[in-house]
Amino acid sequence: MTRRALVGGGLAVAAGAFWPPAGVRAADVSPLRIQRLAWAGIRLQMPGATLFVDPLTDPAIWGRALPDRLIPVDDAAGDGFVLVTHRHSDHGDVAAIASALKNGGTLVYAAGTPPFSGLPDAVRQRPCPLWEPQMLGDFTVTPVPASDGYGDLQVSWVISAGGRRIFHGGDTMMHGGWWRVGRQFGAFDAAFLPINGAAFAWRQPATDEPAVLTPKQAVAAATILGAKRIVPIHYGVTGADGYSEMPDPLAELGKASIVGGPQVTVLAPGEWLDWNN
Asked: Rounded to whole angstroms, how far apart are CA atoms 73 and 84?
C-alpha cells in the first residue's frame, strides 16, 4: 500500500489556533517527522528525541493474520519515550517497548495500569492521570478518554511537538468524550485513528457490534476533533481466531470521507507522513 490522499480538504478554525503565526508555513519550520509502524504503532521523531506510541514488533502476537511489515524500533535517536494506550498485547508489546528503550528512557501509560515487567533496568515507568500534561523532552503528551471494546482501561493520546498537534486513538470505540477533547485542545494537524470496526468473539456472550471505530465513525471523530487529516491505523487482520474486522475498511473510509472535511492519508508501515500532501 502506498501513501495516497483519498479526499482533500480541511476544517476552518479560529484565527490564531495554529502555530506558527499567519503567513509562515508550518511545513517550513516544524522539525517533527512521523512514521507509521505496524498495526497501530507510530514513531514521532524530533532532532533530539524519539517517541513511540503502541509499537508492535513481536510476530507471535498476530502471527500470519497480520500482513504488516514489522518495523524495528531499536534505533531511537536522542532521548527515548514510549506511550501505550492500553495493556492489550497488540498495543502494549513488551518486546517492542524493551527494544525502543534499550538504552533507557521513559514508558508512560494511564494511571491505574499495572506496571510492565521484563523491561531494561534503566527504563522509568510513569503512570499518568487523565487530562494531566506530561513533559517528555521535546514532546508534551496528555492522556484523554477512550472507550475500550471490553471495558478495559484505555486512553488516547494528544501529542504536541515542533508546532504540531496530533491525536492517537489506540483502538477506541466511538464515545461521548470526543467533543470535550476537541474543545480542550482545538484543531489537530493529524489524527491517527483505528478504522477496522472489529468484532470480538473471545468473551461470551459474543456480539457482532463493532468494538473499534468503523470508517464512518473515524470520519465523525476526526471532524469533531477538527483534524486536518486522518491517518488510518489498526486494520488489515484476516483469519484471526475470534477476531473479525469489517470488509475492506480502507475503501469504506474513502466512501465515508466528507468533501471539505478531513483529508485521508494512507501510510504503509515504514512510510513517513508528508505534511505537504
From this structure: 14
pLDDT at 18 over 70: no
Domains and CATH numbers, the chain: 4-10+31-266 (3.60.15.10)
Q: What is the pTM of this model?
A: 0.90
| DSSP letters spanning the chain | ---EESS-B-----TT-SSS-TTS-HHHH---EEEE-STT-EEEEETTEEEEES----TTTTGGG--S---------SEEEEE-S-SSTTTS-HHHHHHHTTT-EEEEEETTPPPP-S--TTEEEEEE-TT--EEETTEEEEEEE---TTS---EEEEEEETTEEEEE-TT----TTHHHHHHHH--BSEEEEE----EE-SSSS---S-SS--HHHHHHHHHHHTBSEEEEES----S-TTEEPPS-HHHHHHHH--TBSPEEEE--TT-B--TT-
pLDDT at 277: 80
CB atoms near residue 122 (< 10 Å): 11
Q: What is the mean pLDDT of residues 67-88?
A: 97
Burial 186-195 (b: 16+ CB within 10 A, else e): ebbbbbbbbb
- If you average pLDDT over residues 133-162, what whole number do you get? 97
Per-residue pLDDT tens digits for 171-215: 999 999 999 999 999 899 999 999 999 999 988 899 999 999 999
With a cut of 60, say whether residue 217 has pLDDT above it: yes
Return d(Cα 140, Cα 160) in angstroms, integer. 5
pLDDT digits (tens, 9 = 90+) for 127-137: 999 999 999 99
Distance CA 104, CA 83 (A): 14
247 cis-preceded (ω within 30 degrees of 0): no
